[in-house]
Amino acid sequence: MQVLTGLTPDEFRDLVPSFSAAGETHTELNWRGQERQRAKGGGPQAGLASTEEKLFFLLFYLRHYPVQEVMGALFGFDQAQANRWILRLTPLLQQALEDQQVLPQRSVVSLELLLEQSGALNLLLDGTDRPVRRPQDPEKQRQCFSGRKKRHTVKNVVLTCRRAVQFLSPTAPGSQSDKRLAEPLEQVEIPRRSVVLSDLGFQGLNLTNKSLIHPAKKPKGQELAPIFRRFNRVIAATRVSVEHVISGVKRCRIVSDVLRHIKEGFNDLVMEVACGLHNFREVHRSELTPVLLPIQMN
How far apart are CA 253 and CA 255, in angstroms? Predict the structure, then answer.
């Protein structure tokens, strides 16, 4: 189960009730989001009958990201039906993870409330790129091309604490710099006792009440002084945990392989779901204190 879905059997069983409740609410409409013409249970029988089958289908797809023809062959229907199931079930998993209170914050207002409740924290800031197919539109090609990665990508900035993703920025084209994507965080009042570490990609980011700590940059044509080399090693040893978090998020291959979906907003949705699944695993496998979990906004 863990190899196929990324979750242990106990974690899978704990997620089923929330996923089922989200499905009950969602079935008030048809799969296109329109008013139902038949009562629930009417029409031809679905290829995925139980809640467990639907959740397993989606987790398997997110974890291994096979082509939809393979998904249809494995679960007994065609590619078109597999596509409909994916587009229908992914928002349900997002809702289930929100009910579990493991989704990262997406707005600076909710992040500030979370940090205010949490107090002193060691926060790690980093950016991550995800490859996408080369856009057909020339303007989108220019926007999505990352000079650092030498390919077309989309990008997010994550703020992590104790192996959990606390904040996820909106998905942006790969040509944007990490600093520009993190500029909304300048509006957040960071607790004075907190420490925020980042890499050199965030130089110039001005946080409220807090100086951003990043490695020392090597002077052009000169060697870095020994004291700064030791400082950089300390920063790197601390910041390695954010790389482990991003690696845990990208356990879902849909956010590490080249994204084949072209539906508007789907690339941002799957990144949020992948972060939620990582936080869900961390809650079950470690001793995360409840205050670190995302708060619920009224």
Answer: 5
What is the rounded end-to-end Cα distance, in angstroms, of the chain? Answer: 36
Strand pairing class (172-173; 151-161): antiparallel
**What residues have CB less than 8 Å from 277, skipping those under 6 apart?**
6, 7, 59, 62, 97, 249, 251, 252
Q: How far is CA 184 from the centre of its chain?
A: 18
Rounded distance between C-alpha atoms, residue 164 and residue 246, angstroms: 10
Q: How far apart are CA 227 and CA 216, in angstroms?
A: 10
In this prediction, residue 287 carries a pLDDT of: 62
Collapsing DSSP states into helix, strand and coil, what is residue 102? coil
Q: Dihedral sign for Cα 25, 28, 34, 38, please.
A: positive
Domain boundaries along the sequence of the chain: 2-99, 108-261
Task: Give the pLDDT of residue 118.
Answer: 75
pLDDT at 258: 94
Mean pLDDT by 10 residues, the chain (298 residues): 94 95 76 69 71 95 96 92 92 94 91 78 90 91 89 93 91 91 88 86 82 86 89 91 94 94 92 96 75 44
Reading the block at residue 11, the tokens are 């974690």
State residue 40's pLDDT score: 66
Extract the tokens encoding 52: 């467990």
Give the list of residues 6+ apart from residue 185 with CB closer than 8 angstroms, or none: 108, 111, 125, 159, 167, 205, 207
